[in-house]
Amino acid sequence: MDLNKYLEQKFEQANSVKETFDRKWYENLLFTYGHQWLAWDTIQNQYVGKPGSDFLRSIRVTSNRIFSTIRTVIAKLVGQKLSVSVVPTTSEYKSLANICNKIVKNVFDKYKIDYETTFNVLTFGKSFTKCVFDPDAG
């Protein structure tokens, strides 16, 4: 299999997986910032005030312990060095996983991906990072 086709296939596969999680991730982000009184409207295809309530005029007491907990955990995690590893799906990919581990370690060291990545992992359960290679950079 051509490497270019293989990478394109994996990229498309990753995009389709990401799309399945988008709505849940958005819900997690809303909860993190204290917007618990929303429901998914399938007609408008977005989050709206819960049915049966005058959402814009009603005042709801919200005790948001999620955000403060996430900030506490981030402070503890960022104080330590994050460890990221690529796990091969089969034994055939062990050497490829070792190469990917070196690339990921290099990217994390170079771009200092700490706070944003940790926040995304704690909020969404996953984190995606876009890495760009600049051949003209020294």
- The coarse overall form would be extended
Q: Estimate percent helicity.
A: 40-55%
**Poorly predicted parts:** none
How many E strands? Answer: 2
List the secondary-structure elements in sequence, H or E.
HEEHHH
Ends distance: 33 Å
| Structural class category | mainly alpha
Strands side by side in the biggest sheet: 1-2
The number of helical elements comes to: 4
Biggest beta sheet summary? 2 strands, antiparallel
Main traits of this protein?
138 residues, mainly alpha, 4 helices, 6% strand
Give an overview in words.
The chain is built from 4 helices and 2 strands; from the N terminus they run αββααα. The chain has helices at 3-32, 66-78, 94-111, 115-124, and strands at residues 38-41, 46-49. The protein has a two-stranded antiparallel ribbon. Strand 1 and strand 2 (46-49) form a beta hairpin. Helix 2 (66-78) crosses helix 4. The longest helix is centred in the first third of the chain and has 30 residues, at 3-32.
Short note summarizing the structure:
The chain is mostly helical and 138 residues long. It has helices spanning 3-32, 66-78, 94-111, 115-124; strands spanning 38-41, 46-49.
Write the layout of secondary structure elements.
Layout: H1 3-32, E1 38-41, E2 46-49, H2 66-78, H3 94-111, H4 115-124
Antiparallel strand pairs: 1-2
